[in-house]
């Protein structure tokens, strides 16, 4: 059985006091969830969230990191800074980072390697633009993103992959379950090409992009979608709890 994960990506939202209340209120729902639960919170919420989530089954992740351990990189946070406060997961290569902060397949690859070297578990994001989807280029684009991100990486045991079509993020336009499942199958076959069938069958692959309580169950009913990376709908406890119940 593959691992199931529902992860929230709070993006640039939630103050520490809001994060602590959220986690406290989510806890009773989280207890009964049939999947791993991760909240990827802003840096300034990490410490408070980790303390509040202690002794619960809610795991805490960061949304980005630099690949170097230290140095003259104003405004950046290093993998060992995350690790030393017990952060477990880190999102790498989110399309908003690629789009607004000039992240490339090369920097994504460096970050994935560095995260693994520091025993952090990367959530690697890939996804195509609307134009690429309209030109039916998504399979080639996604497969290339996966190959570049994983270049030189021996084991992907600690990596989770998130397929997030850019046109579905924050737009309310969720991918159909068939489209999402088909693209995730392409990801699995790319992983098979690189690491063999056993690894491909075991890697946990999430869908992200306008996941809501209304569409989560349908997405989770497919053969290859192992959970979700949720943006907007992870900011309200009742909405996020309903998504957890859909698994
Ligand atoms: P939305 O769920 O708000 O579309 O965001 C998805 C996302 O970017 C998660 O990383």
Question: How are the SSEs ordered, and which strands pair?
Answer:
Blueprint: E1 5-9, H1 16-31, E2 36-40, H2 43-53, E3 58-62, H3 79-84, E4 89-92, H4 95-100, H5 105-117, E5 121-126, H6 130-134, H7 138-149, E6 160-163, H8 177-195, H9 197-202, E7 205-208, H10 216-220, E8 227-230, H11 237-245
Parallel strand pairs: 1-2, 1-8, 2-3, 3-4, 4-5, 5-6, 6-7, 7-8
Helix pairs in contact: 1-2, 1-11, 7-8
Strand content: 5-15%
Number of E strands? 8
Determine the number of helices (DSSP H or I, runs of at least 4 residues): 11
Fraction of residues in H or I helices:
40-55%
Mean pLDDT across residues = 97
Give, in order, the helices and strands: EHEHEHEHHEHHEHHEHEH
As residue ranges, the low-confidence spans are none
N-to-C span: 14 Å
Largest sheet: 8 strands, parallel, barrel
- Biggest β-sheet: strands ordered side by side in the sheet: 1-2-3-4-5-6-7-8
**Ligand names:** 1,3-dihydroxyacetonephosphate
Shape: globular
Gyration radius over CA:
17 Å
State the secondary-structure class. Answer: alpha/beta
């Amino acid at each position: 059985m593959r691992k199931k994960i529902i992860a929230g990506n709070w993006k640039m939202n939630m103050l520490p006091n809001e994060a602590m209340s959220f986690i406290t209120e989510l806890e009773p729902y989280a207890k009964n969830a049939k999947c791993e639960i991760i909240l990827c919170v802003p840096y300034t919420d990490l410490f408070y969230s980790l303390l509040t989530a202690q002794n619960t089954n809610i795991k805490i992740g960061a949304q980005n990191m630099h690949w170097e351990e230290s140095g003259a990189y104003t405004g950046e946070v290093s993998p060992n800074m995350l690790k030393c406060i017990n952060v477990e997961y880190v999102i790498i290569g989110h399309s908003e980072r690629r789009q607004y902060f000039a992240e490339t397949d090369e920097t994504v690859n460096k970050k994935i390697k560095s995260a693994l070297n520091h025993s952090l578990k990367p959530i690697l994001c890939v996804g195509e633009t609307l134009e690429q989807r309209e030109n039916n280029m998504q399979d080639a684009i996604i497969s290339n993103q996966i190959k570049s991100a994983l270049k030189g990486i021996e084991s992907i045991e600690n990596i989770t992959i998130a397929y997030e079509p850019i046109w579905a993020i924050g737009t309310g336009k969720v991918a159909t379950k068939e489209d999402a499942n088909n693209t995730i199958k392409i990801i699995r076959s790319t992983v098979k090409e690189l690491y063999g069938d056993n690894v491909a069958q075991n890697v946990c692959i999430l869908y992200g992009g306008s996941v809501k309580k209304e569409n989560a169950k349908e997405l989770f009913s497919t053969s290859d979608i192992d959970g979700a990376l949720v943006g907007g709908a992870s900011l309200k406890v009742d909405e996020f709890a309903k998504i957890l119940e859909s698994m």
